[in-house]
Design brief:
Length: 158
């Protein structure tokens, strides 16, 4: 994926990832998960809460194989919306630009909930579009795994 293959309009569209998944569990149960910073750092299984600690207003998640990740909570609007600034990863420290991760939980007619995630701000990660597109590509694939993990985690507790 290189920037030479995209128009300016396409690059604007690629600045964000938008995914959703239906979960057969009450919206409140989905909220319990999404309100926790960093639950979405996983390799197919939701991270254990014991791996999360705080340094002031920064949530720090140490994943046993993926490394340390840092988040700042932007907004929690129980039980429908949560947003976090992804301020540090094993590849980026807190002094660099970050992406915004937003979650919405909507009750579905007939039961269950839809979990929607939007991660935006990739173009601010690097001046060279090829660099931020590469990071976006990894996260784009990752959200499929992370939402499937959320579904499995929440449905197992419903």
């Amino acid at each position: 994926m290189t920037d030479a293959t995209y128009t300016a309009e396409e690059l604007v569209e690629l600045d964000r990832i938008d995914r959703q998944i239906d979960i057969d569990a009450p919206a409140e149960r989905v909220w319990e998960l999404i309100a926790r910073p960093g639950w979405y750092v996983n390799d197919g299984t939701v991270a254990d809460e014991s791996d999360l600690h705080y340094e002031g207003d920064v949530a720090v998640l140490r994943h046993p194989t993926l490394g340390e990740f840092r988040f700042r909570t932007v907004e929690l609007d129980k039980p429908r919306y949560a947003s976090f600034r992804w301020i540090g990863t094993p590849h980026r420290d807190e002094s660099t630009a970050s992406t915004l991760v937003e979650f919405w939980v909507d009750e579905r007619d007939g039961g269950g909930a839809t979990l929607r995630v939007v991660e935006s701000g990739f173009s601010g990660l690097a001046d060279d579009p090829a660099a931020w597109l590469k990071e976006r590509e990894g996260n784009n694939k990752g959200w499929l795994t992370e939402l499937a993990a959320a579904k499995a985690f929440v449905e197992a507790r419903a």
